[in-house]
Write a structure and sequence with these properties.
This protein is α/β, with parallel strands linked by helices and 284 residues long. The protein has 11 helices and 9 strands. It starts with a strand and ends with a strand. The structure holds pantoate.
Length: 284
Amino acid sequence: MEIINRRQRMFSISRKLRRENKKVAFVATMGALHAGHISLIKEARQSADVVIVSIFVNPVQFNDKNDLLKYPRDLTSDAAMLAEYDVDYVFAPEESEIYPEGFSTYVYVEGVSESLEGASRPGHFRGVATVVTILFNTVRPDQAFFGAKDAQQIAVIKRMTTDLGFDTEIVVVPTVREESGLAMSSRNENLTPEEREKAAVIFKGLREAKLAFRSGTRNGSKLIGIVQKAIESEPLARIDYVAAVDAETLEHVEKIEDKETILSTAVYFGNVRLIDNVVLNRRQ
Ligand code: PAF
């Protein structure tokens, strides 16, 4: 496994891999790797000849400076974990490699970036779309793997990939959960043991709504109500939003018919903000 810090070196490796007709799978991360990332890497490993993982804490996608400062960074232990899973290259650039002096070009995906996470975290998806564009242009992957927990991020990246004509397939990997049902996230480390235990209520609420959907409830507001009621039963939880949205456009869905719909929520435990979702009417 080679750790690459320079963009020029990454460029020349991706040029060489293309010349050799290798299939390249890419997993973009901000480090602080956990079982959720490992499941992306395992899928990537099965699917391609070469696996490239990036580790870059992207300052442009943080709208809260404290959140950026608090973000865990440990390249040595992340790299040790990646070596165990047979990763070929780790791209871990300094900030100045990605955003050199004078940087002034940003990618903004209209519509799909604006609701839910986009409304609660202004500028977040502009930062994500910009860095993913730079990473895709640097790595030139055939496939890129993202976790289903970040449903809106996936919708933004898919839209952007189509609109900007990237020759990269976006592969979505199911959310990995702790035993309690809590979705794996680097942010779980910032919860107290009590909050971490109680945060299982998020998935419990989503699962109850999914069961109601399976039993025939098709009204978006009713399903939202089921999730809200379950989460509000936990005094430590503070809901930011619960929404039923079209998986592709992120527009609110009132009556769920045959389009893939996401029931999505963001919930605070203390000052830790957790997101999760379930898919209704999954497209095959
Ligand atoms: O999901 C993440 O960890 C980040 O948003 C990503 C895709 C690595 C871009 O910085």
